Amino acid sequence: xxxxxxxxxxxxxxxxxxxxxxxxxxxxxxxxxxxxxxxxxxxxxxxxxxxxxxxxxxxxxxxxxxxxxxxxxxxxxxxxxxxxxxxxxxxxxxxxxxxxxxxxxxxxxxxxxxxxxxxxxxxxxxx
Length: 127
Fold this sequence. Notes:
Layout: E1 2-8, H1 18-31, E2 34-41, H2 51-57, E3 65-68, E4 75-76, E5 79-80, H3 82-90, E6 94-97, E7 102-104, H4 107-124
Parallel strand pairs: 1-2, 1-3, 3-6
Antiparallel strand pairs: 4-5, 6-7
Helix pairs in contact: 3-4
């Protein structure tokens, strides 16, 4: 069974509560034949810098990957942090995004979807 860290979107609390985010993450992990072994979220003040996440994925974690509520958690200054996604995958972790029903199991998956990610980033610049 695979193991994942769930990365809650603390800033989305008014729209979707943290308990509901936990349920969504666990359901998504189950579909991947996995389970959530740890959950965390960036402090709202530091969410754009992703300080905690960057510290986590650069260590040697004994997990298969990370589950996020959505790609929106990777937007900084109205731009999707595509290089961050690529770097996490290069370290051997999977990335999963519930809202988009999107999974990257490897850097190969990323390369196949990079144009879609660029389009997503461009569409979100106006928000």
